[in-house]
Design goal:
By secondary structure, the chain is an alpha+beta fold. The chain contains 7 helices and 8 strands, in the order αββαββααββαββαα. It has helices spanning 2-15, 49-59, 95-108, 114-125, 162-172, 206-221, 225-237; strands spanning 25-29, 37-44, 63-71, 76-84, 138-142, 150-157, 176-185, 188-196. The chain is globular and about 45 Å long.
Length: 238
């Protein structure tokens, strides 16, 4: 059913003739009785798109429990997020869903900067740094799981802006996210990304793989350099 909804959204978007319309289409769907909402964003693909959407959702208080990012052959991205509110319920199709769509549009049109806003929110909510490591952080880079992309799996403690920070980091490393699979188990987040380099190829250089691992460990631990490396080693030993 969701594939049919996505196809209908794309067809309707492509049939629009009003050139003054923003080339951005957001659809929210909640099945009656479900405690989760599906939010689909159809927009021109560009570096940082997925990250900005994730940031807008985080700022809206939406908990992303799963996500799929797909780049289409027409240069458009179709990003699907399954979200819940802070009480573990669906967003529905009322005012809250409309406010979420407005926040996403603001992030994608430059009216707000999700990165800066998330940093402010993290400082406001900052607590003990040891809380970060109640779930051992881990980064795995795998070139055998897919024939066409490098697969990156990240396991860490879930927190505000986590998906935004990780995907912003991947964009900064010059990686294209072709698919993303986001899952949360309570306070633990397991995020899997299929990525390619700027040439559309797997990342196979050992030095580049190491820089990816180091950068992502810095992002999820909040520590840099040797400190993040020591955490990585302790995790491997565990």
């Amino acid at each position: 059913e969701h594939l049919i909804r996505h196809a209908r959204l794309i067809r309707n978007a492509n049939h629009k003739t009003n050139k003054q319309d923003i080339n951005l289409h957001i659809e929210n769907f909640t099945q009656s009785g479900d405690d989760i909402s599906e939010v689909v964003v159809y927009a021109p693909d560009h570096p940082g798109l997925f990250s900005r959407i994730a940031g807008a959702m985080s700022l809206s208080g939406a908990n992303i429990v799963d996500a799929r990012a797909v780049t289409l052959t027409n240069g458009m991205a179709l990003d699907t997020f399954w979200v819940q509110d802070i009480a573990g319920g669906a967003y529905g199709d009322g005012d809250r869903a409309k406010r979420l769509a407005i926040k996403i549009e603001a992030a994608l049109t430059g009216k707000i900067n999700p990165k800066k806003e998330i940093e402010k929110e993290k400082k406001r909510l900052s607590g003990s740094r040891t809380e970060v490591f109640t779930v051992p952080p881990r980064v795995l880079v795998d070139n055998k799981a897919s024939n066409t992309a490098t697969v990156i799996e990240i396991s860490t403690r879930n927190r505000i802006g986590l998906l935004h920070d990780i995907t912003w980091g991947l964009t900064g490393l010059g990686l294209q996210i072709t698919s993303a699979h986001i899952t949360t188990y309570g306070e633990r987040a397991v995020d899997v990304f299929y990525v390619k380099d700027v040439f559309g190829l797997k990342v196979e250089q050992e030095s580049k793989i190491k820089s990816i691992e180091n950068k992502l460990m810095e992002i999820i631990t909040g520590q840099t350099g040797e400190d993040a490396g020591m955490i990585d080693k302790r995790t491997a030993l565990n």
